[in-house]
Design brief:
Blueprint: E1 6-11, H1 32-39, E2 44-50, E3 71-74, E4 77-80, E5 106-110, H2 133-139, E6 144-150, H3 152-165, E7 169-178, H4 185-195, E8 199-201
Bound molecules: pyrazine-2-carboxylic acid and zinc ion.
């Protein structure tokens, strides 16, 4: 068992990010058995769930003429336009059936406001609007987080960068993540995480 100040944050292990899903990450389902085992080592386990309304501004389908994986400019900066994914209440938004959910004490849903995306478990993409996770962790005496899940270069990396910025010790277990890797996004995310002091472990 890890010390009580450590939490496991499991990012977006949902059907739409696994093979067969709307925004499938290659090998996304391969990480699940390891994540299930890791849960047994941590007294605090948090799951996140990408949870978009159908009208979400990150969906290419909501931008006439835009193709998926193109870039749009939002008030908070550049935003990748994704295929429609993780729509609230759909099968694609459900956790993968093999993911153990019983050990988790908290499920953070994010990306539920139509006008703003939320990659990070801590803040929406304006980097200012909090999800409440920071307060939850601090109240529970957590000072170090281990991050796993999908996708390495988007929601896992943004969460790890915010964790480090907030003063948590942050570790990404890369072997328990898989990446989208859009135009070099994985290398960029790894560089940023290293520069921010996030430990990248296998
Ligand atoms: C994610 C793109 C869009 C992720 C979520 O979980 O990494 N990526 N929404
Ligand atoms: Zn999303």
């Amino acid at each position: 068992m890890r010390p009580a100040n450590q939490a496991l944050i499991v990012i977006d292990v949902q059907n739409d990010f696994c093979p067969g899903g709307a925004l499938a990450v290659a090998g996304g389902d391969e990480i699940i058995s390891r994540i299930n085992m890791l849960m047994g080592d941590f007294a605090t386990v948090v799951l996140t769930q990408d949870w978009h309304p159908a009208t979400h501004a990150s969906f290419a389908a909501n931008h006439p003429g835009a193709v998926p994986f193109s870039l749009a400019t939002m008030p908070y900066g550049p935003q990748v336009l994704w295929p429609t994914h993780c729509v609230q209440g759909t099968l694609g938004a459900e956790f993968h059936a093999d993911l153990k959910t019983d050990p988790a004490q908290l499920v953070i849903r994010k990306g539920f406001r139509s006008a703003i995306d939320s990659y990070s478990a801590f803040f929406e993409n304006d980097r200012q609007t909090p999800t409440g996770l920071e307060g939850y962790l601090r109240n529970r005496g957590v000072s170090a987080v281990t991050l796993v899940g999908l996708a390495t270069d988007y929601c896992v990396a943004y969460s790890a960068l915010d964790a480090a910025r907030l003063g948590f010790t942050a570790t990404v277990l890369e072997g328990a993540t898989r990446a989208i890797d859009l135009n070099g996004s994985l290398a960029e995310a790894r560089d940023k995480m290293r520069a921010a002091g996030v430990a990248l472990e296998v």
